[in-house]
């Protein structure tokens, strides 16, 4: 009996000790999670507030340089700015509270279930497991997600330093690279019609090589079909004075030089393909006349053609008091005295425009849901999610002021009734009807859910010229991320949708087929031994291309323009 009581007491004390240790570890674990939660919230708020502090410095400097005595109009502008900021603050707080409420509502049912299971010792998640899961989610956001973002860097983007793509030409402001296939079975067909891609300035070029190893790359979508594919890459603006001071005319001259070299090599005129802001630049370069005889086709993807029609960014700028809708409030002075537009600040402006979705608390809880563990398993952060976060955190570039002024004008001054753009090049007016006069086939692609460059903004040229239109599901970068995969529903080299839309690569391949049938192509220029060595012996080997789709070279989309406000209906 004494031995039995002793064993029972020992068993009780052991269980009690284990319970105390377990609860102590749980308390420590939850304390660590609470610290991670605080750290995460502070980081998300810091990332949002830092550009605000930088903008405050720019604002104070601009106001000090243009100081004037008190005037009623100056006071009215400040009162308008105060009202603007109060509206932003209201939307900021409202969206933050909504994010917290949405998360709590989603987790409340799990908490009640866990409480019920704990009270009646039922199967399923208990309270302790519920709180442990919450703690794990917080640590995933503050530790696992940043690690996943860091780990994706070697797989994201072009990585030209590795030498897999060929540096084909160079100016004082740009490099021109030829993009080589990632599919080892494909060889570039030198006799095919070449394409030159113009990336966006602010968002950077690497978004167009999102995850090449995962077959998600806009640029490689062309190269993997055997198309001679080139991309214009900005030099580092921090160390390149010529790029810092670049004018739109410099941009056109450099583009012309690259097109001359490409045409000389392949014996065919170039298709100019601009993405986002690069599309607006490409159109302006074509309309300037500097690319006549060199460019005979045009592709623009999610490109803002008349920013005043934007219901997001355009209306956002209109709500600013006119006095403060000026580039001087976003201008950075470099160490050499040259002035450039601050790219990080411009990215922040896009966040302010969509503050309901981009407030720090909203972003935090969105990421918290993304890394939530399910069914007792650790969450898996996809490479796509990690790469998107890497792009958002790291891919921002400062811009030459003259180039920024082009975009600024397009969002503040509408295209005229006759199609004249609000910018000039070489002292020449630019008019959308020039594309029609040059008989250049034009494919315009837009995102159906794009809240940065809305449909109305991208399709503005249709009020003045005929162009083929291809809508893509999802948002601004989906063409470069989701749909660049060759097996996706809207793969770029296929036709898709009920209207048999053509993707950009399909458009390019059909143009080349039409040229071959018309007999207008010329022999490929003979390359020097040096260029053959640079490009490798396999470049002249033909590869089996995708079977051309049916239809004409440039199927036209008929439009109506019932008013001068830019409203239109697709038929």
Describe the structure.
- With 571 residues, this protein is α/β, with parallel strands linked by helices.
- It folds into 2 domains: 2-155 and 359-376, no CATH class; 160-342 and 398-516, 3-Layer(aba) Sandwich (Rossmann fold), CATH 3.40.50.
- Helix content is 46%, strand content 12%.
- The protein contains 17 helices and 17 strands.
- The chain has helices spanning 2-65, 72-119, 127-151, 218-223, 241-244, 248-266, 277-287, 313-319, 343-353, 355-358, 360-370, 383-394, 401-410, 433-437, 455-458, 504-518, 529-535; strands at residues 166-170, 174-179, 195-198, 229-234, 270-275, 295-301, 331-333, 339-341, 399-400, 420-425, 428-431, 442-447, 468-472, 495-496, 501-502, 559-560, 569-570.
- The strands form 5 sheets. The chain has an 8-stranded mixed sheet, with helices on both faces.
- Helix 7 links the parallel strand 5 (270-275) and strand 6 (295-301).
- Helix 1 packs across helix 3 (127-151), helix 2 (72-119) packs parallel to helix 11 and helix 3 (127-151) packs across helix 11 (360-370).
- The longest helix has 64 residues, at 2-65.
- The protein is globular, with a radius of gyration of 28 Å.
């Amino acid at each position: 009996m004494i031995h039995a009581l002793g064993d029972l007491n020992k068993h009780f004390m052991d269980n009690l000790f284990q319970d105390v240790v377990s609860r102590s570890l749980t308390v420590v674990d939850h304390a660590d999670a609470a610290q991670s939660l605080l750290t995460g919230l502070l980081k998300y708020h810091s990332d949002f507030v830092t550009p605000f502090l930088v903008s405050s410095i720019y604002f104070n400097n601009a106001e000090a340089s243009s100081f004037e005595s008190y005037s009623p109009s100056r006071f009215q502008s400040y009162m308008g700015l105060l009202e603007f900021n109060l509206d932003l603050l209201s939307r900021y707080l409202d969206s933050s509270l909504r994010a917290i409420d949405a998360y709590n509502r989603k987790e409340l049912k799990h908490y009640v279930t866990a409480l019920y299971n704990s009270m009646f010792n039922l199967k399923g998640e208990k309270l302790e497991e519920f709180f442990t899961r919450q703690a794990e989610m917080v640590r995933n956001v503050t530790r696992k997600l940043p690690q996943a973002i860091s780990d994706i860097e070697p797989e994201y983007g072009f990585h030209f330093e590795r030498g897999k793509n060929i540096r084909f030409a160079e100016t004082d402001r740009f490099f021109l690279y030829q993009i080589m296939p990632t599919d080892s079975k494909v060889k570039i067909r030198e006799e095919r019609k070449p394409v030159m891609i113009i990336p966006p300035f602010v968002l950077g070029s690497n978004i167009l090589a999102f995850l090449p190893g995962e077959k998600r790359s806009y640029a490689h979508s062309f190269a993997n079909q055997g198309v001679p594919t080139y991309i214009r890459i900005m030099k580092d603006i921090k160390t390149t004075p010529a790029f810092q001071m670049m004018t739109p005319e410099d941009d056109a001259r450099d583009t012309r030089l690259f097109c001359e070299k490409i045409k000389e090599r392949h014996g065919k005129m170039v298709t100019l393909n601009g993405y986002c802001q690069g599309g607006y630049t490409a159109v302006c370069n074509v309309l300037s006349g500097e690319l006549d005889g060199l460019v005979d086709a045009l592709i623009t993807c999610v490109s803002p053609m008349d920013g005043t029609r934007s219901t997001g960014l355009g209306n956002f700028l209109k709500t600013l008091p006119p006095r403060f809708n000026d580039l001087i409030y976003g201008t950075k002075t470099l160490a050499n005295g040259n002035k450039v537009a601050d790219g990080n600040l411009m990215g922040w402006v896009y966040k302010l425009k969509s503050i309901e979705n981009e407030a720090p608390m909203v972003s935090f809880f969105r990421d918290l849901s993304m890394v939530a563990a399910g069914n007792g398993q650790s969450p898996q952060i996809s490479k796509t999610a990690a790469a998107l976060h890497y792009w958002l955190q790291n891919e921002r570039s400062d811009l030459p002021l003259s180039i920024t002024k082009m975009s600024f004008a397009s969002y503040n001054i509408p295209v005229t009734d006759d199609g004249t753009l609000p910018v000039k090049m070489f002292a020449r007016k630019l008019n959308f009807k020039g594309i029609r006069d040059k008989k250049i086939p034009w494919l315009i692609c837009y995102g159906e859910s794009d809240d940065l460059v809305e449909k109305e903004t991208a399709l503005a040229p249709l009020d003045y010229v005929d162009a083929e239109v291809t809508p893509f599901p999802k948002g601004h970068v989906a063409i470069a991320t989701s749909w660049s995969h060759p097996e996706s529903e809207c793969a770029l080299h296929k036709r898709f949708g009920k209207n048999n839309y053509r993707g950009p690569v399909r458009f390019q391949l059909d143009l080349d087929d039409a040229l071959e049938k018309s007999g207008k192509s010329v022999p490929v220029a003979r390359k020097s031994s040096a260029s053959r060595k640079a490009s490798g012996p396999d470049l002249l080997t033909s590869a089996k291309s995708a079977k051309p789709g049916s239809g004409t070279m440039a199927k036209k989309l008929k439009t109506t323009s019932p008013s001068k406000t830019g409203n239109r209906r697709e038929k």
